[in-house]
Specification:
264 residues; alpha/beta; Histidine-containing Protein, Chain: A; CBS-domain; four-stranded mixed β-sheet
């Protein structure tokens, strides 16, 4: 047998034989009937971690009202909505503090100095329409967390406004994306077990033990083929909240060897 880390002892007591097709079909029936406490693992979407019903302002909301909203609610920005509840801009603390430039008596800059001229106009602004930064970065509520993360990184923004049919339904910040990593080890163990039971390349000869510590999943046991072990590792890594996977599965046959992969 080609083995990964050969370990003995306590973990062997928790090893289980992977479920048969019949037992898994029975489990699916129980879940559909609502008799099983297990909730099926599903890819998380933006809607599942966003902050719903964010505080918003209108195009005509006055400067001081916006400043009070940010202070009283300990937030750094508010989206600006039009009459159709579509986000058309965002007013942040950076937009508001430009007012100090105007109060200091600084002279009006040349239009050629675009950034300085924009700050000057914001310093003189009195309502959201003239204070806001536009356009805003939005994302659909059904989008994946991967898509949201990539957009936050690519745009360098701190938040995305979440929409459904163009209307604002929530806001997704970088901090919201970290929520999935606050899942307990016990919850992660259950989620990984379920993910593997539902999608794994299992057979009656597959033996597997799943443990989780500080978000790191360790897979111990035996699988028929090396590719089975790789697939189980991928399934575990795909569970939201998993920090890393230590794949310690041994295998009977190496079907990923170069000669076999080439069909020899």
């Amino acid at each position: 047998m080609n083995a990964g880390d050969q370990t003995g002892g306590a973990w062997l007591d928790t090893m289980y034989r992977y479920p048969s097709a019949e037992s898994y079909r029975n489990r699916e029936t129980e879940e559909r009937a609502g008799t099983s406490p297990v909730t099926a693992s599903r890819p998380l979407t933006v809607a599942s971690v966003m902050s719903p019903d964010p505080i918003t302002v209108r195009l005509t909301t006055p400067y001081k009202e916006i400043a009070n909203l940010l202070r009283d609610n300990a937030i750094s920005a508010v989206p600006v909505l039009n009459a159709f509840r579509e986000p058309v801009g965002v007013v942040s603390e950076a937009d508001l503090i430009a007012k100090h430039t105007y109060l200091s008596g600084q002279r009006k800059p040349s239009r050629l100095a675009k950034d300085a001229y924009a700050r000057w106009n914001k310093a003189r602004a009195q309502i959201a329409k003239d204070l806001m930064t536009s356009p805003v970065q939005t994302i659909d509520a059904d989008a994946s967390l991967l898509a949201a993360t990539e957009k936050l990184v690519d745009t360098g923004t701190r938040r995305l406004f979440v929409t459904e049919d163009g209307r604002l339904t929530g806001v997704l910040s970088r901090r919201d994306l970290l929520r999935v990593f606050t899942t307990t080890d016990e919850e992660l163990t259950e989620a990984v077990d379920e993910q593997i039971a539902k999608h794994g390349p299992w057979s009656r000869t597959t033996e597997l033990c799943v443990t989780v510590s500080a978000g790191v999943v360790t897979l111990l046991g035996s699988v028929p083929r090396r590719s089975d072990g790789r697939r189980l590792g991928e399934l575990a890594q795909a569970v939201p909240g998993v920090v890393a996977v230590r794949n310690r599965l041994s295998h009977d046959a190496d079907d990923l060897a170069p000669g076999l992969a080439a069909g020899q």
